[in-house]
Amino acid sequence: MNVRLNSSLLACLLVCTVAAADDALRARNDAIIVRAIERMPGYDYSQDKHVLDAINRHLSRSVGSADYVALAKRFRPEDMPERLAEIISSGLNDSVKVEAADVLCGVEGGPQLLAEMLECEPVDPAAQDPSLEDLPAQHRAAQVAGLLGNLGNETARELLGKVVRDETQPFKVRSRAISGLAKNGQGQNLILQLARSGNLVPDTRLLAGGLLARSNNEKIRQRAAELLPQPQLKDQKPLAPIDELAAMRGDITNGQMLFRGVATCANCHLVDKFGKEVGPDLSEIGSKLSREAMYTSILDPSAGISHNYENYVVLTDSGQVITGVKVSETPTEVVIRTAEAIDRRIPQAEIEEIKKSEKSIMPENLHHTFDQKGLVDIVEYMASLTKK
Ligand code: HEC
């Protein structure tokens, strides 16, 4: 019994080893055939079933690996767009992914697949939290935008241009697309064109202007200075562009001191119940906004006003002008919260005119109350305010 069991085990092992050896041998042969074909650029192998099978086996063995991209480029298998898309979303290194994106731009159906990978659920500007379900999609889209930014071909430019015009897409993705476009002259010109025609979503104007200010083309630098001016510190001292600011690290304690003190942020924002509530509660802002977005909120507050906090200007029949965030509205009265966090109840009957302001109630040039280091410290403080 024992002997029989052992011998059948052995037989099984033998068969398996032979099969494995067979597979390894076949893989080696396939690789040799593929390499030979690669060295014969003009050779039409499409009629040779033996060769075709070898190529297909070799391709399917390399799916998901760096080798696949070069092989797919040469042999153009039918399912190559999907397989390349998988590589782009994989954990392979960026050089391989950029190459895969480059090939994908040039195959039928490729740009469509890239467009799908770039697209996220529309974001609701009024939402306090970004939808958690969509975070992986946002992360992937931002990554794809970053990869396309390295290509500089027309397809990549078109795809990125579409993203930066679409205000329903998250800031994280649009800002990566801007950075990508800004990497070459044609992309820079596209950004200028969008800025001039008013098609650049306002919250990326600062980032775009800062990137174009470093173009090696003097004309582009000049046009950017006109169309996308950069903020300055008080006394016209230069301020680093926001992509550079976002890479800096600051001092949380000093940031908190400024936030509660001279910078006046706490006059309008609550953090862990400290402060006043004119604008959104910032207790978890570090989980919600990237550093780029925080710098944009401070330096260009009117660029992306969220629907819940639109600023209104009310003119009463007695000639009073009251400005602030609309807290509530009923058929009989409107409640406006002013910048000093005072609620003004205004009877509808006394309202001569009420209109929405283009400007945020959050003051411009708040950054004139501190220097660049202070700004970096405040953002460091906000970045530390994450979900408990
Ligand atoms: C006069 C009131 C006021 C002051 C002062 C103020 N803010 Fe704001 N802030 C607002 C309002 C209102 C909003 C929301 C509407 C908008 O975006 O304009 C806002 C939005 C923000 C946002 C975006 C929040 C989000 O969820 O997207 C950040 C970040 C922010 N402020 C930071 C600051 C910092 C930092 C300071 C101090 C340097 C500051 N604020 C000073 C009123 C103010």
Main sheet strand line-up: 4-3-2-1-5
Which spans have pLDDT < 50 for at least 5 consecutive residues? 9-14
Shape: elongated
Outline the biggest β-sheet. 5 strands, antiparallel
What gyration radius follows from the Cα positions, in whole Å?
29 Å
Protein structure class: alpha+beta
Q: Quote the beta fraction.
A: 5-15%
Mean pLDDT: 89
SSE topology string: HHHHHHHHHHHHHHHHEEEEEH
For the termini, the CA-CA separation is: 64 Å
Q: Which small-molecule species are bound to the chains here? A: heme C
Q: Can you count the helices?
A: 17
**What is the share of helical residues?**
40-55%
Number of strands: 5
Question: What report would you give on this structure?
Answer:
With 388 residues, the chain is an alpha+beta fold. Among the domains are: 119-123 and 132-230, no CATH class; 248-301 and 365-383, Cytochrome c-like domain (Cytochrome Bc1 Complex, Chain D, domain 2, Orthogonal Bundle); 311-356, SH3 type barrels (Roll). It has 17 helices and 5 strands. The chain has helices spanning 2-38, 49-62, 66-75, 80-88, 94-105, 110-118, 135-149, 154-165, 171-181, 185-196, 205-212, 218-227, 242-247, 252-260, 285-288, 291-299, 372-383; strands spanning 311-316, 321-329, 333-337, 343-347, 351-356. It has a 5-stranded antiparallel beta sheet, with no helix packed on it. Helix 7 runs parallel beside helix 9. The longest helix has 37 residues, at 2-38. The N and C termini lie far apart (64 Å). Residues 263-265, 267-269, 278-280, 285, 288-289, 294, 297-298, 301, 305-306, 309, 325, 339, 360-363, 366, 378 line the site of heme C.
